[in-house]
Amino acid sequence: MRSYFSRRTYQAHQVRRFAVYALGAVSFCAVLLVLHGYLSTPHIPSQYEALHAPGAAHPVLPLQQAHTHPLHNAPPRHHPKTKVSRTTGWRFATPADELGALIGFMAAFASNSLPAHVDPQQPLDPDLVLGFDARDENMRDEVREAIREAWRVNPVVVLSETGSPPASREAKDMITSLNLYPDPTIFEVDQRDDADIVRPMLQRLTGADLFPIVIIGGTPVRSIAELRRMRETTALNDTITAAGAKINGKRKKHGRKH
Ligand SMILES: *[C@@H]1O[C@H](CO)[C@@H](O)[C@H](O)[C@H]1NC(C)=O
Predict the structure, then answer these.
(1) In terms of DSSP bridges, do strands 185-188 and 213-216 run parallel, antiparallel, or are they unpaired?
(2) Contact 213 CB / ligand 1 (< 6 Å)
């Protein structure tokens, strides 16, 4: 399921630490690649490396499982990367879809970040965030499923900022005090390498001016005031439950951080 979202770039400090793992990973990978006969597949090394990246925040599908995933059953060596021109490429249907795919991408690996050339005010290129070619008409169902999966795995997302501590802290405290399972997915947006891109992009896609932004089941709560209002009624607990997170559903403390 993690393989819906690709791993595009490495944070600089992780690259250095990762170098230690690279030699072993590459040689082991080579053996596996030969065994699978997929020498020309570009995605396998990154899947494998992701397993061993020190910053990888989530469990990643082992190589074998990745191959049995429905999305990967198509012969990888015929991955139609060059069939469709970039300029006539497929786009996400709505900003909500863009948001789902972006959050899925950001959550899949702690090191996932958007490249510097991305214009946050333009529609997000699906190629940057999806682990498969979405420009094929036949892939629309897979895109829809990837977005559903992003919200299923990340039912409650907190987009926080260390630069505006009181409101961000309040939102995080409010959410973490519910002891959710699965853990809330928390991003410190201003701490990211791609902060200058992702910050305005998240504002565009959620319609929120300021952080923190809490996203429950794919629906943004656009201000701390709105979040407080929701907590005063049953709305906060109800929407979180409806999104698939269980209140008081986890045993140990501490939210998952990104
Ligand atoms: C929401 O759930 C929390 C945790 O169980 C509880 O303390 C709180 O009272 C609930 N809120 C409402 C309005 O029922």
Answers:
(1) unpaired
(2) no
